[in-house]
Structure formats: C-alpha cells, structure tokens
Specification:
Number of helices of chain A: 23
Oligomer: heterodimer
CATH superfamily of the largest domain in chain B: ACT domain
Strand content of chain A: 15-25%
Largest sheet of chain B: 5 strands, antiparallel
CATH architecture of the largest domain in chain A: 3-Layer(aba) Sandwich
CATH class of the largest domain in chain A: Alpha Beta
CATH topology of the largest domain in chain A: Rossmann fold
Structural class of chain A: alpha/beta
CATH superfamily of the largest domain in chain A: Thiamin diphosphate (ThDP)-binding fold, Pyr/PP domains
Largest interface: A-B, 22 and 20 residues
Largest sheet of chain A: 6 strands, parallel
Order of helices and strands of chain B: EHEEHEEHEEHEE
Shape of chain B: elongated
CATH class of the largest domain in chain B: Alpha Beta
Distance between the termini of chain A: 63 Å
Number of strands of chain B: 9
Radius of gyration of chain B: 19 Å
Strand order of the largest sheet of chain A: 2-1-3-4-6-5
Number of helices of chain B: 4
Strand content of chain B: 35-45%
Shape of chain A: globular
Structural class of chain B: alpha+beta
CATH architecture of the largest domain in chain B: 2-Layer Sandwich
Distance between the termini of chain B: 36 Å
CATH topology of the largest domain in chain B: Alpha-Beta Plaits
Number of domains of chain A: 3
C-alpha cells in the first residue's frame, strides 16, 4: 500500500480472495486509496485500463491467486496490445507452497509472460520495494505497457526494512531510442520535396502528449492528418487538416490519399494490418517516414524509407522546427474533392439506424464526452462519427479487439473523471459479456452512461457473413434480456428509444439523469459499415458505401 | 520462402526469476527458429550471457535483435554476423565399441582431436569440442559403429577482442 501511495495511486480496482487477505486488511488503514470492488476480475483490469486511457496515468488492478489472476488475463492482453500503462498485482500462494499445486495456485507469471511488458514473482520481501517501484517505472516509461507483480501470501505479511528506491536504473532498459538529428533533417527535406504528403498519426502522439506539436507541424507544412483508430484525439477532428480515421473502415478520403501519396509520415503508429490492408498494396507511390520511440516497430510491417527514432516529445518539435513552411494547394484540392465525393453516409431512412444514434451522440455531447466502445460495428461507426477533440478522450480496444471492454473501461474513466460526461457505446453482444458491473456502478452512483446499440445481431460478424459467406448467418443472431427489467433489477436509470423522432429527447433525458444510465437504442438489424477494405485485400479494393447519394462506383477506386 | 541461414547472436541478460522463460517465449511467439541456445554465468554477478543461433532471413534476424534489445531482461545484444568471433560446441557421443572396434574409434578420435572420456565393456564415449559442422562430420564417421546416444551443449560464441 505504501508503494501505491508513493506513486500517487488514488484508486485501485480489485477483488479479494484468500491469499490477498493481508493486503485487504492493510487497506483499511489507507483511506486515501479508494478500492473499487468489481464483480469480475476481468473488469478490474479493464477499469484500470479505462482509468489509464482517460488520464494518461498508470491504472492499477488487484486480484487473488489462481482464478482471480487468470481472470485478469484478457484485460492485461488488451492493455499490452495498445501499450497501456497498467500495474496488475496478484496474490500467490505462500512462497513455500509455490510449485506444489496448492489450492488456488496458478503460474500467473508464466501465463502472462507474452502479454506483459515485464513481470515479477517476488519470493523475498526484501525484493518487494524494488519490484513495485520498478513495475511502475516500466509501466509508465518509454513504450508503456502492463506490468504484473505476483506476491505470495507470506511475502505480504513479512516485514522488510529495505527502503523504496528513489530512482530506478535498470541496465539495458532504454525507455526510448536515441534521437537522430540527421534523420530529422532528412525527413524535413523529404517534406519539402513532396507534392502529395500525408501524416498518419497514432496513439504514440496521444501518449507522448505531443498533439500540439502535431497540429503545429500540420499547419506549418500544410499537411493533412489521418488518424489510426487509436490515434483519434491526437488532432481535433474539427481541425481543417484532419481527415479522420483510415483503415479497414476508415473514411474513404484517407484511404485514397494514402494510395496516391508520394510521402507518408507515420507518427507513433505501428502499421497494424487493419490499417495497411495487404501490405504489398499499401501506399504504393509513397516514400515512408516512420517516427517512433520503439525501434522494433521500424520495418516490422512495411518497408520504410527513413526511420526517425526517439521520443516524440523530442522528435516532433524538432521536426516541426526543421520543416520549411509550404502550401500544398493542388493536393488539398484533390483531397477536398474526395471528401465531397465519398462522404460518410448517414441514411435518411424512416427507421432508426445506429449511425443516427452515434451521430447524435456526437452532436448532443458537443464532441466533448469521454467515449469508450466495445468492438464491432458500433466501434467503427463511433470512430467515424464522433469528432474527438483531444487526447485521452477515446477508449477503445484497438489491438486485441476485446468485446466486453467498453462498459468497464468507461467506468474506470468515470471514476477518474467524475466531473466529465462519460459514455460507453456498446452492442448487445459485448454488453452481455460484462454487464454484471452494473451493480458496481450503482453502488458507487457512478456517472456513466451506456449507449446500447441493439440490433439483435453480432453485427460485424453478420456483416462478414453477408458479404463474404453469401448471407449464411451462422450463430450471429443474439437474443437479449429485457434491458428495462434488467436495469430495474440493478436500480439503473433506463431509457429505450426505437424511433428517430424520440432520439433527441431520449439523449436529453439520459444526459440529465444522475448516476448510471442505460439507454437502449433498437436499431435497424442489418446495417453495414462502409467504406470497407475486405480483410487481406489491398487498400485499393476499398468498397465504398452503396448508399452514397450519387452513382459513384460502389466497389473499387474509380480510375 | 525467403533465404534463411544460421546467425549467431549473443545477449547479456539479467539473471532473474523468469528470464529464460521470457526469452524462450519471445522466440516462440514471434516465430524465430532457434537452432541452439546456451546460457551461463558470465563475468558479472547477477547477469548471464546467452549464445543464440537463430535460423532466419535478414529481416527476421533484424527483428530478432530488435525484439531482444527491447526486452526488459536484456542488457545488450551483439549480432556476430560479419564480425570476427570464436564459437564452439561440446558434444558427447556414446558409440558401440566391442573390443575389436576400439582401436578404430580411437584412431578416428585422435585424428579429429577428440578425447575418449569413458570406456565401458560395450561402449566408448567420445568428447568433441568443435563447431557444429565438425561435430556433424564426426557423427557421420561414427555412425557405422552404432551410435547409442548423443548429447550436445549448444554453441557458445564470443566476438574477438575489439
């Protein structure tokens, strides 16, 4: 507990059990650290994750040995894929019983090796102060990530006179690659030569809090900025140079721009396959510059013309200073043309569609709420339609694609930001994975609002079955309980909306209500997300929205 | 399929709970093909030095070195490709050796600078310290006599003085 206090931890998300009893006992003497009792350990990890994604600080979760620890696994794997700073503390059986298959023993260190930045099994209490301090240091420096500390029961109760280290120096640990001035100068030259430059900005910009430097850079060299899914918020979506998200379901303009660009500047991104599509067809005409603090990302996926190593907080301002002012009027004319030709489609249908809901969520909250999502169609529509303004406003499981993440992550954000409006956008599939946390939310009168987009299907899977498996719907129709009764049982404020007419008033009432609010939107069942680059296809195979108002070719890029 | 070949890399690592497990996990997870791995204490207490032989194309080798460098356990990594370095492996080869065959096997061993480390009623054990190719050659020479058992240490390697 002292280590937690030392690191300014004000809240931990956990679940007690046999071997962590000594820690829970000690907790009663540390009133400054709030403990949130979850209903399932997976959600403790997701809440710690949501806390981290909405504050930029380390999230902490706690579980007992055995099943408590294994229940954290999905949450830890979610965090490592998106480089989220998290410390997970698990109890372990007594040190002398480790290795004997004792009751509730599991090798959580072994299990989490591939999904942690680092982990510890602390067998000697004298090693504990160092391990805990180092865990926070590793989680929160360089490329961030989850660190797990497994502590046997007798180590919890043992006393140690070893003080907490005030500084961590770990040989061979480089938080960020060293910067390279020549690379920055070369990059600036490439920008000066380029006629069709684009930036793809990712979560690295968010976590290094270099969004201002990014905006300055774009303004100075007149560069369009595309975001990766997790890069949303690194530039205000309403900034004139923001082109929104690209990728499998990114806006057409971004995909087309990258296809035609002669210079692509990737900043704090890892060229995920959902962004690049088939790598051979990615940015075929572009020289690629890659800014990242983690050199193992260089040339991992795409061949790169120039790598710019180093922490973005150093390299981006230096790059901004090095580029010469320029304008790219011709290029922008083309980009604006694509924006006009291939906008996101909001159908003017009689029935309520998910896109109506999510567009109004953006408008009614003035694009200012903290938004989390689960995974699937609603996630993509939110990413397309919500106009994020700032870093740490957008919480979504991008890498692992974890269903059930949205609601507990929003709760973690709501605990961390009690004065802000927090919405979890979830589908009927994902919500049913973690809805037991409604009870936790009620107990804390937590101001978290759930936008449940219910289409009666696992919508994204259904979409794939429609498009790629000839409409053979296999196990995607998803029944739901009566959410009104469910909300009543938990004591959660509930609204239901099934028409476009009621949409605005429903949002108004939901926003005005205190405490946890569940809003169910019954939407069109078979709505599809477009644009779409089919999996494994190159980005020039993008399928445009068949609902585009004009009769532009719905499939493929027009010649 | 890109051209792969064996590359030797050494890594200085912290000797902590789970280090070896983490290293092996990294190789398995990223699909790096390990030909040989040898670990032991080194000149500094608390650290170990690993000699790794990985079968990879150039890009995979680069990734392998990068991923090793990134691991929190690893202090430093040295790729020995294109450098001057020494490398050896130790192997014991237990071969069937009835009395009438003993002198032949001893001759072979002597020519190849090997040592007979055990002589039994029916078998002999030959110790060889050499590079992997030479060990393979010795095994081929001893095969006609009937090999009972082979144990190999894996390659240890060190770059030459800089």
């Amino acid at each position: 507990m002292e280590a937690l206090a030392l690191h300014g931890v004000d809240i931990i998300f956990g679940y007690p059990g046999g071997v962590v009893l000594p820690l829970y006992d000690e907790m009663t003497r540390w009133p400054a650290i709030q403990h949130v009792l979850v209903r399932h350990e997976q959600c403790a990890a997701h809440m710690a994750d949501g806390y981290a994604r909405s504050t930029g600080k380390v999230g902490v979760c706690l579980a007992t040995s055995g099943p408590g620890a294994t229940n954290l696994v999905t949450g830890i794997a979610t965090a490592i894929m998106d480089s989220i700073p998290m410390v997970a503390i698990t109890g372990q059986v007594n040190s002398w019983a480790v290795g004997t298959d004792a009751f509730q023993e599991t090798d959580i260190q072994g299990i989490t090796i591939p999904i942690t930045k680092h982990n510890y099994l602390v067998m000697d209490v004298d090693d504990l102060p160092h391990a805990l301090v180092e865990a926070f240091h590793l989680a929160n420096t360089g490329r961030k990530g989850p660190v797990l500390v497994d502590i046997p029961k007798d180590v919890f109760t043992a006393m140690s006179s070893v003080p907490f280290p005030t500084e961590i120096v770990r040989r061979g640990y480089r938080a960020a690659a060293a910067t390279n001035d020549t690379a920055i100068e070369t990059a600036a030259k490439l920008v000066a030569e380029a006629k069709k430059p684009v930036i793809i900005a990712g979560a690295g910009v968010v976590w290094s809090e270099t969004h201002q430097a990014l905006a300055d850079l774009a303004a100075k060299a007149d560069l369009p900025i595309i975001n990766s899914l997790l890069g949303l918020g690194s530039i205000d979506r309403q900034n004139e140079r923001s082109l929104g998200m690209m990728g499998m379901h990114g806006e057409a303009v971004g995909t087309l721009a990258v296809q035609e660009a002669d210079l692509l500047i990737g900043i704090g991104i890892r060229f995920d396959d959902r962004l690049t599509g088939k790598v051979a067809g990615f940015a075929p005409n572009a020289k690629i510059i890659h800014f990242d603090l983690d050199p193992s990302e260089f040339a991992k996926v795409v061949e790169t013309t120039l790598c710019v190593p180093g922490d973005l907080s150093e390299t981006l301002p230096a790059f901004t200073a090095a580029v010469a002012p320029k304008v790219n009027d011709e290029w922008w004319a083309k980009l604006r043309g694509w924006q006009e030709e291939f906008p996101l489609v909001i159908p003017d249908s009689a029935g309520l569609m998910a896109r109506h809901v999510l567009q109004l969520l953006d408008r009614t909250t003035n694009s200012d709420a903290i938004i989390s999502t689960d995974v699937g169609q609603h996630q993509m529509w939110t990413a397309q339609l919500y106009r994020f303004k700032r870093p740490f406003q957008w919480l979504s499981s991008g890498g692992l694609g974890t269903m059930g993440f949205g609601f507990p992550a929003a709760m973690g954000a709501a605990f961390a930001n009690p004065k802000q409006e927090v919405w979890a956008v979830v589908g009927d599939g994902g919500f049913q994975m973690t809805l037991q946390e409604l009870q936790t939310a009620v107990e804390h009168k937590l101001n978290v609002k759930i936008c449940l987009v219910n289409n009666g299907y696992l919508g994204m899977v259904r979409q794939w079955q429609e498009l790629f498996f000839e409409n053979r719907y296999s196990h995607v129709a998803m029944g739901s309980p009566d959410y009104g009764k469910l909300a009543e049982a938990y004591g959660v404020t509930f609204f239901r909306c099934s028409t476009r007419e009621d949409l605005e008033s429903t949002f108004q009432q939901a926003r005005a209500a205190d405490g946890p609010v569940l809003v169910e939107f019954l939407v069109e069942m078979e709505e599809n997300v477009f644009p779409m680059v089919p999996a494994g296809k190159a980005n020039d195979q993008v399928q445009m929205d068949p609902g585009l108002p004009n009769d532009k070719a719905p499939m493929g890029i027009p010649a | 399929m890109r051209h792969t070949q064996e590359h030797t890399v050494t890594a200085l690592v912290h000797n902590e709970h789970g280090t070896l497990n983490r290293m092996i996990s990294l190789f398995r997870r990223r699909g790096f093909s390990l030909s040989s791995l040898a670990v032991g204490d080194c000149e500094e207490p608390g650290l170990s030095r690993m000699s790794i032989v990985v079968n990879a194309d150039d890009n995979m080798l680069r990734q392998c070195v990068m991923q090793l460098e990134k691991a929190v356990d690893v202090v430093s990594v040295e790729s020995l490709d294109g450098k001057e370095y020494v490398h050896r492996e130790l192997a014991f080869i237990q071969v069937e050796a009835p009395p009438e065959k003993r002198s032949e096997i001893i001759d072979i061993s002597r020519v190849l600078n090997c040592e007979i480390v055990h002589l039994g009623l029916k078998t002999m054990t030959v110790q060889v310290v050499a590079n992997a190719r030479k060990i393979q050659g010795l095994i081929r020479l001893l095969e006609p006599y009937g090999i009972k058992k082979i144990v190999r240490s894996g390659t240890v390697a060190m770059s030459a003085e800089e």
